[in-house]
C-alpha cells in the first residue's frame, strides 16, 4: 500500500505539472482570440511555440501512469468519460495543426480560420479538463464492479461546470501573466492588465466554488485539518495575494511563478481531499475506486517506480534546458510561426 500511495502522489504530481506547464499554453491560446493584428497573433503563438509540445508530455505520462498503476480507474474513466475525452483529443489535435498550418498559405482568410480553431480549442480544453475534475471531486455513478453507470449529459452537472469555468479563468490568468512576461509594448501592457482583471474574477469564482464544494462534495473536507492541507492552503493564500502585487511591481517572472503556485496548491488540495480515493462513487461509497482496490501488483508498482526515478529527472532536465534556451522576450523572424 505504500507503493500505491506513492503512485497516487505521482499521478497528481504529473497532472499538476501538466496543468502548470501546458496551462499557460492554453491560456495564451484563449487570449489569442483577442489579439490585435497579425503581429500580436504571431507573438502569442511564438511565446509558446518552442515549449507547447514538450509540456503535453506531462499529460501523456500521467495517462500512462494511471493505466499502469491503477488499471480499473483508467478503464472506468476512459469508458465513462469517452465522449469528453474524444473532444479533448480533437482539441489537442486542432491546436497542434493550427500552429503548423496557419502560415502555410498567404491568405488572411486561411490564417483567420486556423486562428479561430487554435483559440477555440484552447478555450474548450480547460473547460473539459475542469468538468472532468469536478465530476471526480463530486463522484460519479459506479457499480460495485467499478463500471461507470452514467451518461455524457450526466457529467454536465452545475458543480462540474462551475469547476470547468474556474479552470478556464485560472489558466487564462496564468497565460496572461506568461504573455506579459514574453511580450513588450502595448501587448505587454494589455496582457498585464488582463491578468489583473482575470485575478479578480478568479478570486470570486474560487470562493464560490469552495462554498459549492462544501455542499456538493463534503467528503473532500475531511482531510482539511491535516498539516499538509494547511501547508497547501498557506501556499495558495500567499500565491493568490502575491500574484497581483507582482504584476503591479512589473515582476512578471514572479507573477508567472505565483499563478503556477496557485494551480499547484489547488491540485494538492484536490488530492488531499480525495485520498485514498481515485474515483469516488456518488451512488454507493463502498463502490469507490481507491488505491486499495484498484492498484496493480507490488512488482508492477515497484518496477514502474524504478523507471520513474530514472525518467523523471531526464524530463525535468529537458524541460529546464528548453526554457533556458528560449528565455526572454519573443523576437519574430522568418522562421517563426
Structure write-up:
The chain is an all-alpha fold and 337 residues long. The protein has one domain. 74% of the residues lie in helices and 1% in strands. It has helices at residues 2-32, 37-48, 52-55, 57-69, 71-80, 82-101, 108-138, 158-182, 185-216, 227-248, 252-274, 298-325, and strands spanning 277-279, 289-290. Strands 1-2 form a two-stranded antiparallel ribbon.
Keywords:
single chain; 337 residues; mainly alpha; globular
Q: What structural class should be given to the helix and strand makeup? A: mainly alpha
- Strand order in the largest sheet: 1-2
Shape: globular
Order of helices and strands: HHHHHHHHHHHEEH
| N-to-C CA distance | 48 Å
Uncertain residue ranges: none
Mean pLDDT: 90
Strand segment count: 2
Question: What characterizes the major β-sheet?
Answer: 2 strands, antiparallel
- Oligomer classification: single chain
Can you tell me the number of structural domains?
A: 1
Summarize the structure.
The protein has 337 residues and is mainly α. Helices cover 74% and strands 1% of the residues. The protein has 12 helices and 2 strands.
How are the elements arranged and paired?
Layout: H1 2-32, H2 37-48, H3 52-55, H4 57-69, H5 71-80, H6 82-101, H7 108-138, H8 158-182, H9 185-216, H10 227-248, H11 252-274, E1 277-279, E2 289-290, H12 298-325
Antiparallel strand pairs: 1-2
Amino acid at each position: 500500500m505504500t507503493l500505491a500511495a506513492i503512485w497516487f502522489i505521482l499521478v497528481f504530481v504529473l497532472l499538476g505539472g501538466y496543468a502548470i506547464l501546458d496551462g499557460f499554453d492554453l491560456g495564451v491560446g484563449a487570449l489569442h482570440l483577442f489579439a490585435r493584428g497579425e503581429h500580436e497573433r504571431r507573438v502569442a503563438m511564438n511565446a509558446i511555440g518552442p515549449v507547447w509540445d514538450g509540456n503535453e508530455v506531462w499529460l501523456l505520462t500521467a495517462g500512462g501512469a494511471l493505466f499502469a498503476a491503477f488499471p480499473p480507474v483508467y478503464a472506468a474513466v476512459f469508458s465513462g468519460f469517452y465522449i469528453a475525452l474524444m473532444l479533448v483529443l480533437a482539441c489537442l489535435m486542432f491546436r497542434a495543426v493550427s500552429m503548423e498550418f496557419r502560415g502555410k498559405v498567404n491568405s488572411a482568410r486561411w490564417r483567420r480560420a486556423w486562428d479561430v480553431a487554435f483559440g477555440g480549442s484552447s478555450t474548450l480544453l480547460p473547460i473539459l479538463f475542469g468538468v472532468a475534475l469536478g465530476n471526480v471531486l463530486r463522484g460519479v455513478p459506479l457499480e460495485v464492479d467499478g463500471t461507470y453507470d452514467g451518461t455524457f449529459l450526466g457529467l454536465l452537472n452545475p458543480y462540474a461546470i462551475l469547476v470547468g469555468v474556474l479552470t478556464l479563468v485560472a489558466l487564462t490568468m496564468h497565460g496572461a501573466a506568461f504573455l506579459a512576461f514574453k511580450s513588450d509594448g502595448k501587448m505587454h501592457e494589455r496582457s498585464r492588465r488582463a491578468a489583473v482583471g482575470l485575478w479578480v474574477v478568479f478570486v470570486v469564482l474560487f470562493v464560490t466554488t469552495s462554498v459549492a464544494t462544501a455542499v456538493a462534495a463534503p467528503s473532500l473536507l475531511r482531510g482539511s485539518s491535516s498539516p499538509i492541507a494547511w501547508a497547501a492552503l498557506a501556499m495558495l493564500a500567499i500565491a493568490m495575494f502575491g500574484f497581483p502585487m507582482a504584476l503591479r511591481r512589473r515582476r512578471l517572472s514572479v507573477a508567472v511563478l505565483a499563478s503556477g503556485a496557485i494551480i499547484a496548491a489547488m491540485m494538492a488540495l484536490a488530492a488531499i481531499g480525495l485520498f485514498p480515493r481515485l474515483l469516488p462513487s456518488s451512488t454507493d461509497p463502498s463502490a469507490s475506486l481507491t488505491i486499495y482496490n484498484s492498484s496493480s501488483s507490488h512488482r508492477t508498482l515497484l518496477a514502474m517506480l524504478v523507471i520513474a526515478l530514472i525518467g523523471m529527472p531526464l524530463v525535468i532536465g529537458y524541460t529546464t534546458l528548453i526554457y533556458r534556451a528560449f528565455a526572454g522576450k519573443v523576437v519574430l523572424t522568418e522562421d517563426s510561426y
